[in-house]
Amino acid sequence: MRVPINITVNGEEYHLEVKPNRVLLDVLREDLGLTGTKKGCGLGKCGACTILMDGRPVHSCLLLAAQADRRQITTIEGIAAEEPHPLQAAFVAKGAVQCGFCTPGMINAAKALLDANPNPDEAEIKLAIAGNLCRCTGYNQIVSAIQSCTPSKSDLQAAERGESNE
Amino acid sequence: MSELDIVGKSYPQIDGMQKAMGKTKFVTDLVLPGMLYGRTLRSPYPHAKIKNIDASRAKALAGVKAVVTYADTPGIKFGPRSEDWTIFAGEKARFHGDEVAAVAAIDEDTAEEALELIEVEYEELPFVTDPLEAMQPGAPLVHDDKPGNIAAEFKIEAGDVDLAFKDSHIIYEDRYYLNQVYQAYMEPMGTLAEIDKSGRLTLWTGTQVPNMMRMTYAKALGLSPDNIRVIVPDYGGGFGGKMENNIHLVASILAQKAQAPVKLVNTRYDDFIAGNPRVPMYIDIKLGATKEGLLTGKDVQVVGAAGARLVYAMVIVATACYRVDSLYRFQHVRSKGYTVYTNTVPTACFRGFGNSQMTFVLESALDMIADQLNLDPAELRIKNGIGPNETSIHGWKINSSGLKDCVTQATEKADWQEKRQKKEPLKGIGLSCCNHVSGNRPFAREFDGGAGIVRIGRDGRVTVYHGESDMGQGQKTTFAQIAAERLGVPLEMIHVADVDTDISPFGLGSFASRGTLMGGNGVLAAAKDAFSQLAEVAAEMLEANPADIECRKGKFYAQGTPEKYLPFNEVAAQATFSRHGAPVVGTGFYEPPTVLPDPETKYGNISPAYPFACQIAEVEVDADTGQVTVTNFVGAHDVGRAINPMATEGQIRGGVTQGLGWTLMENMAYENGKIINADFVDYIVPSALDVPDIKPILVEPIEPNGPYGAKGIGEPALNPTMSAITNAIYDATGIRIKELPVSPEKILAELKKKGGM
Question: Which CATH architecture has domain B31-125+188-237+242-267?
Fold first, then answer.
């Protein structure tokens, strides 16, 4: 049995027929070739598969593709315009990226936070990414990268020039 | 050394933006035309005879292309250290998770469904999971030919320990237990395997040891090593865990049988139960000191669990036995190590490699001694710490040592004196030191250096080839900085190739904190060779002497006349044309001045350089819940020279966080021989909420054997963390933690014993 769905991914509309038990993560990665979204656990506990659905962060490994019918999906491939998104630039410049496997999910979680609350404090940032595990960086630089994209602590221009404030 | 343009500066990872945009193809992202998906059937019992396997129903399922078991393998015994592996369990399964069969199918769902159709008839056998129990007479034997389940023994003795204890003012003695923890790299282990018409195997896999793996797998598959090609794409973390593992061979057998490429990726559950987690250890320590706090003698016994087959546990136990002996000025030491088979997941390398376990024990013991002698723990370390240009008791030549500077700078930054004196209830501050290596001479007997290739094409594009492994730590960027510095070109002109054993140098890989020093020196030597080839061409073009040619910021010029210059790419083009199309290829290697330890005494010099560190943790203990919170953390590290300070600090923060996880939350829990928390729901690793602001301090004494003075940092970043935290807990509560992790239950029980603080 297949379920017809219409989803918009990164601004492009797709009409797909999916198995009812197929999760959105597999559809993104295998059917649409959007491998920027990662599978780290399959249980919604590591956050590597975090995407934005109608602007809100969702674990795509737990979401049935059928539940995404008529929704707007944004993956890491879709958050940059012509230039990298400021969060992407800040993550790179601050050393918030090591192996990079958690990065797409982490950036999506951060983007959802900043879209809803453009000026979060440190505690709010930590809470927003608490469901996204990173085993390389120790989180300090991730928090600092997100902070640098808030108006109060914006040193984004420095970040874009590749300077470190260390 | 002249002024440096690129080394010593904080550059973002050269492939960082690729990763941040989701464009990097990790191992699990790779797809080949006609590719099948593999899944592994694993033993549900810790120890069981396999009486029969009926795969007929699985084979009949539509979409299944191959089902394989031990019968489909060459049946050769093999292993990286001891030949006690087979590709699948043969007569019996030895741990819960042992490979029993595997399926390749057109998609993962079909493969999963097929697994359920394989009928295996088991006969359960008595099992043993604890190494001390496994050594007892009458314990079930994991391997019938290994009496007492002893996989390996290690012994080292120097000086007269018994006499030293007689002369000691105080002696501290206790038993510690270091539990089994999981690397928890974010990308599970996986591989893509393809076999060509001639039978040659290509593996795309995230591995820290591409070349060594190839040698081991060649034996397992009955192939010659040159019939295996290993390509290392970007992969999501390793921390020691991604070395040899049966998963790669299972994929290879599936690809052989199905005659199609097969991608096999562990589910997270499979990765927990059949990865290669840390070696759990019982450690008995006896440590003596004079009234003044000078260490007299040390006697230790280590019993480590290898799990059901030997990966690297024996070398890890040996490391636990004696690496710390070169941290302080020991004169009399004795260690005995037992590596013991158990019916548990095979254990192996995890950041620290045995030294982390023993560092925890030694540094805990030192604080107990400091306490009894009423000495400042920092002072005790400085008093005994090994200094530059000293030779340790086992012959290790310490060229540079920033140990004392690490203690001084860390204590200053953390306001150590003030906080130690100002006692606040349930708040504490603790300190720990460590040493480590930058390469480990006895790990591979043949050699222990590094090599590089630097290729410069017609357009001036520089490609660096190395044989180590970037698991995410930023090694590519470090190597690019070294090559750019030596060639005199901007960093963006350097590209670093993925390791491909058909092309790259035969490197030993990324372990033993060796990448920067060994691989970096190899790249440096290759860059030097390429430079001198280009200098010849530039000299001719500039009508100058080749010895006078310099290059900076991509411009060749003769010494003294920088205004008369040639752009790098013009010289590269001329070099290529004058050689009728041949690129400039510089090669080079680094031979470290190490000494293979004597087989009996272990006297030698295992590394060309030794990094040191001092970390300080501050904690708060909640008397109602038993919860320990790390509120502040300082890590001062002697790194020789930081090639890239931001990346180096990233290693420190990451290592500390992993150590914090081990200390306060992580534990692979067994029940009836099975790991019962094999997922991120029940096995908790630190999240952003658990980590304080970690303040790294880079101490840079400039190591004569390091590339531009650099030493390793990967493992020393974690080694002292556990004891820094537990020493802080002791300072806060008087509770001496002798077993990890520190659960709130333990703290509550101990607080109760102390009369409800």
Answer: Alpha-Beta Complex (3.90)
Complex confidence, ipTM: 0.97
Enumerate the residues of chain A whose CB falls inside 8 A of the CB of residue B679.
Answer: 41, 43, 45
Is the four-CA dihedral B124, B130, B136, B141 of positive or negative sign? positive
CB of B24 less than 8 A from some CB of A: yes
Instruction: Please answer yes or no on whether A45 and B16 come within 8 Å at the CB atom.
Output: no
Inter-chain CB proximity A36 and B11 less than 8 Å? no
Look up residue B528 and give its DSSP letter. Answer: H
Give the burial class of B160: count Cβ atoms within 10 A of its Cβ; 0-12 exposed, 13-18 middle, 19 or more buried. Answer: middle
Q: Do A103 and A61 have their domain in common?
A: no
Mean pLDDT of chain B: 97
Q: What is the pLDDT of residues B110-144, one digit of tens each?
A: 999 999 999 999 999 999 999 999 999 999 999 99
A&B contacts, CB < 8 Å = 185
Query: Is pLDDT above 60 for A164?
Result: no
Domain closes at, from A78, A99, A114: A78
Q: Which of residues 199-238 of B touch A (CB under 8 A)?
A: 234-237
Residue-range definition of the domain harbouring residue A53: 3-78
Q: Total structural domains in chain A?
A: 2
pLDDT at B754: 86
Instruction: Tell whether B33 is within 8 A of chain A (Cβ).
Output: no
A158 burial level (CB within 10 Å; 0-12, 13-18, 19+): middle
Assess whether A137 and A112 both reside in one domain. Answer: yes
Residues of B in contact with A46 (CB under 8 A): 186, 268, 680
Q: Are residues A110 and A46 in the same domain?
A: no
Crossing angle of the two packed helices B721-733 and B355-373, in degrees rounded to 10: 30
Record the tokens describing residue B650, joined without a space: 């990233």
Residue extents of the structural domains in chain B: 16-23+449-590, 31-125+188-237+242-267, 281-441+599-753
Q: pLDDT under 50 in chain B at which residues?
A: 1, 757
> What is the tens place of the pLDDT at every residue in B393-411?
999 999 999 999 999 999 9
| Residue A166 confidence (pLDDT) | 40
CB burial readout B276-290, b (16+ within 10 A) else e: bbbbbbbbebbbbbe
Contacting B residues, span 656-715, partner chain A, CB-CB under 8 Å: 656-658, 679-681, 685-689, 691, 693-694
CA of B680: which chain A residue's CA is closest? A45
Report the predicted TM-score, pTM, of the whole model to 2 decimal places: 0.97
Please state which architecture CATH assigns to domain B281-441+599-753.
Answer: 2-Layer Sandwich (3.30)
Strand order in the sheet with B332-341: B150-158, B332-341, B295-307, B281-289, B170-178
B16-23+449-590: CATH architecture: 2-Layer Sandwich (3.30)
Q: Supply the CATH number for residue A107's domain.
A: 1.10.150.120
Asked whether the beta carbons of B86 and B79 are under 8 A apart, the reply is: no
Please report, for the domain that includes residue A25, its CATH number. Answer: 3.10.20.30
